[in-house]
Specification:
32% helix; homodimer; alpha/beta; 10-stranded mixed β-sheet; 16% strand; Spore Coat Polysaccharide Biosynthesis Protein SpsA, Chain A; RGP_fam (chains A, B)
Chain lengths: 360, 360
């Protein structure tokens, strides 16, 4: 029987990527908003475990065995026992847009009590331009009821293509372990009704919990690094991607937005476990962030891939001194691009991947 | 009879500067919030006209004759028939903080219907640090219920001293004449519950309608330029100040915040009159903004005055080509600093000015 529901925007141009280790009951709450989209589920941990997906969703699911089979030796660039594995989903998608969400994120309500269609807001953000070159004090000038304020240069009012839409979280804020430990009871209750462009030249802490991006514009830079099993660091996967993505967006003239939409983040992760994962990152970011703040990509870097390979060289050269981990990471960045290009041959974006996954 | 009202914060350390051409009836609405502060009223236009100030306010008032008497030949740097004259008030103040507000701005209400004490929010903004070196996705990390998010470098969590607090406007947005003409009915109804730091290296359109700053940190850069009578430009006074202030704050390591508080902007100015004032600015800003985006101040510029004099040289050198107006403006910038230093001799900040104004 044909569905009589209205077709949602970008239905056939967007994949929802979900990394998980458990049954996806959380999707029940998202049913009205996600049901007509295609899901890519990246199963982390034990591949013999069966992940239950609620009835009626259209999905493909990859476990570690699938990743190893599809990527072969290059599967070494995909993290294991860490939600960083989600970036495999970005790689196998053939769509123009990606939305990724954690399985402990639920539908939030706006101050009027209305349930927020997070995906729809992300799509709005991605389909309208960004303003990275000058700050607009009334925030997103492309939204209804707003515009550029007096003194905003007219030559910049066309904006820049939007590559990333970074959404926020009500309830449990995305704090690091030390802050979690110090403020165990803090909840985010402040609904800030704004979307804004992070200015060119400014880095930000990109959280992977509620994130959308234009895969065609920036996909190959959305690598979530080497985290988790066998690595000296965790919980920096999205941060790493954010630093790389922002530097490359700045270089290529793309915009990165943050703000709306909110999701409801249900449960704080264990701060003691988090501290163990994070402590190297807390230390290393003091070197990594100044590095990314001063990175210069040469003019010849005209594609995301070229930018990313150049960045991998500079990472090894400049951060290799901080810890040998960064040499390994620099190599993995190259492997990631090779794997990306294998699965996404130029000019045939719709080509099927060599070894198909379990598809429902 | 002694007042039994509680003493408001910074009562003796802040002046409220109001430029006006009319009776200040608008103060009635602000009485609960302003009554205990000292006002500096800068009367624009015909000095023979008497400006009525509601009973009970503590104020000093300067008209053009006062400005001419106090500054002598240096009064040429203070604009006439333009609200840019307000910067004279910054110069004669002896306080650490300034709040300036237009006389068509009323008390706004927050979404719960509560009247917003704009001055109190500005003071909060000025007394807490800024975060110009890295973006915090949950906005002001120093506000109640918020903090730095995961991935924010710990070395940057002390922040930077806040020099400027730029407040916003509900109802009539601060649009340029072309936007006013195109969208005559647009009203700003979006209450964005956030204060954020404008990142280092990013310029913004600073509006003088609802603005507070730390005079000790940045006062000498708050020059509102040559506008109005006898000048080829108007409505760029605050923009000019904003560009200069931001570049100098970035150089000296100070922060600039924007967002809360809102005021209620009651009446749109005439877009046809505005267009006449603005058209040169609309044209010139396309050159001026790239100039300010690329300005480099040498290390030797360790005070606001030194920065400002250096900036005046670069303005003449780089923007003088755009229009001879910028040579005149560059000279006026120097005169402004000379006048500032005359009235604010180093080490005697509390010294009385030579020729007193009309004081109530």
């Amino acid at each position: 029987m044909a569905s009589v529901k209205p077709i949602p925007i970008l239905k056939d141009e967007l994949d929802i990527v979900i990394p998980t280790i458990r049954n996806l009951d959380f999707l029940e709450m998202w049913r009205p908003f996600f049901e007509q989209y295609h899901l890519i589920i990246v199963q982390d941990g034990d591949p013999s475990k069966t992940i239950k997906v609620p009835e009626g969703f259209d999905y493909e699911l990859y476990n570690r065995n699938d990743i190893n089979r599809i990527l072969g030796p290059k599967s070494s660039c995909i993290s294991f026992k860490d939600s960083a594995c989600r970036c495999f989903g970005y790689m196998v998608s053939k769509k123009k847009y990606i939305y990724t969400i954690d399985d402990d994120c639920f539908v939030a309500k706006d101050p009027s009590g209305k349930e927020i269609n997070a995906l729809q807001q992300h799509i709005k953000n991605l389909l309208s331009p960004s303003t990275p070159f000058f700050f607009n004090t009334l925030y997103d000038p492309y939204t209804e009821g707003a515009d550029f304020v007096r003194g905003y240069p007219f030559s910049l009012r066309e904006g820049a293509p939007t590559a990333v839409s970074h959404g926020l979280w009500l309830n449990i804020p995305d704090y690091d372990a030390p802050t979690q430990l110090v403020k165990p009871l803090e909840r985010n209750t402040r609904y800030v009704d704004a979307v804004l462009t992070i200015p060119k030249g400014t880095l930000f802490p990109m959280c992977g919990m509620n994130l959308a991006f234009n895969r065609e514009l920036i996909g190959p830079a959305m690598y979530f690094g080497l985290m988790g099993d066998g690595q000296p660091i965790g919980r920096y996967d999205d941060m790493w991607a954010g630093w790389c993505v922002k530097v490359i967006c700045d270089h290529l003239g793309y915009g990165v937005k943050t703000g709306l939409p909110y999701i409801w983040h249900s449960k704080a992760s264990n701060p003691f476990v988090n501290l163990k994962k994070e402590y190297n990152g807390i230390f290393w970011q003091e070197e990594a962030i100044p590095f990314f703040q001063s990175v210069v990509l040469p003019k010849e870097c005209t594609t995301v891939q070229k930018c990313y390979i150049e960045l991998s060289k500079q990472v090894k050269e400049k951060l290799g001194k901080v810890d040998p981990y960064f040499n390994k990471l620099g190599d993995a960045m190259v492997t990631w691009i090779e794997a990306w290009d294998d699965l996404n041959p130029t000019g045939s974006n719709s080509e099927k991947i060599p070894n198909g996954p379990i598809t429902k």
